[in-house]
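Ticket #4471: structure export looks truncated?
Reporter: QA, pipeline team
Priority: medium

Steps to reproduce: submit the single chain below to the structure queue and open the exported record.
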Amino acid sequence: MATGEEPESSATTEQRLIGGRYRLTERLGAGGMGTVWAGWDTLVDREVAVKQALTASAGPLAARILREARVAARVEHPAVVTVHDVVVEDGYPWIVMERVHGESLADRLDHNGALPEREAARIGMAVTEALAAAHARGVLHRDVKPGNVLLGSGGRVVLTDFGIAYIVGEESLTQAGEFVGSLAYTAPERMGGQRPGPASDMWSLGVLLYEMVEATSPFRRASMEATVGAVLAGKTPPLHRAVALAPLIKALLVTDPAARPAAQAVIEALRATAGSAEPVRKPAVTRSQQRMRWAAALLSTAAVAVLTLPLLDRFDDSPSSPLASAPPTPTNSRSSSQTGAKGYEHVSQPGFELEVSAGWRHHDKNASAQYRYTRGEYELIVVPGRDAVANYAKDLMIYQRDYEPELQPYRDSTWATSSGLTTIKVSGYRGVRGQFTWEAEGKERFVLNRALNIDGRIHLLVATGPEAARDTVSRFYDHAAKTYKPAK
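Actual output as written to the record:
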């Protein structure tokens, strides 16, 4: 541990009562991030697993681990281990989870060697669905590996340790003793110090699939330095046993995060290999055209037809919704009319036009060149061409990640998550899109953010609202994005 502190021994910790209700019964295992105990919830009489996170006692990192664990507890999916509680005992974070009986995927591979492709695809599909559910809640795993995949009874597959790896993984690789994770499963962009996103978890998934079918790790070497070098080199070793899964594994292990397939495309490909009769489901999010092309090459014609269906707009016209119509608030700053879609009004300003929800308050252009539209806790921000792309190495990814003022609260927040930045193309304009959650004035804010390169200037569209109202924020953001046009 970086702090020099050591966890208590088994002799002193076994039978200990944590949080006044969780009795530790036996030590199940330990790793770089903590010790896991079998336990018993004395309040409701059930088995639990209790993990002691190894971090500085009562320090800010401990508080952040607890906060991230609480976020992870919101992820509900059969393939995600259920987090029951998080407590602090003697300054240490303890995460109380469901007890899953079975063996880890690491044990299965150690005992049986390579898995048949259909079985590897079945396990991989469950892991990917778990990741997709977590990403939708703004949670990144950052430690996808065989040791964190449990194979329970009845064929159940469970991915464990959600949320914990995200916080600890914030530390730089160059700070000795502070990087916690598994180097052989760590995406190259994370090693390079870039802020990771869902694509980083997809890279780790590719390593996991490779190891399942080939019975060896593609990048693990005899030393830490050699392992890091193998990952950064970006050369995937040949696949000898994989046939059906080979194209998918190669696509997941490309060094460019933007070129990797998204979770839904991976799920469909794995389902095809696993031979499941489950009907193909429409994806929950829109992917970039590059990922669409990859999916089209890999999937059947029927699957592609489903994957490329556009999302349908869903409007909430209930009186309590911020999207519901209300008497408009007049200001001197707008030029608008009721020519928009039902419940929306068309707005035209110097540099852009779009549709915003009817009844929202329109604010004058401020000193930051922002046009703001608000109602209650919800806000839509438009910045048409304030900044030049050339001033940021002509790279919108760098601009959004490091410089965009609208995202500064994310960089300053003591607690924040990101589902990553994705390259997009809208009406012929290239751009970058991301989603974030951060804490502001004690409240968690969900943010959707887009930057487009339009004639060398950066056009921004930002939607914010309560973290618990993600669907509502997504609806008014999607409509604004769909109707946004730069001024002619």
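Status: closed, not a bug. The export was complete when the record was re-opened. Leaving a note from the reviewer for reference: The chain has three domains: 10-98, 102-307, 335-486.
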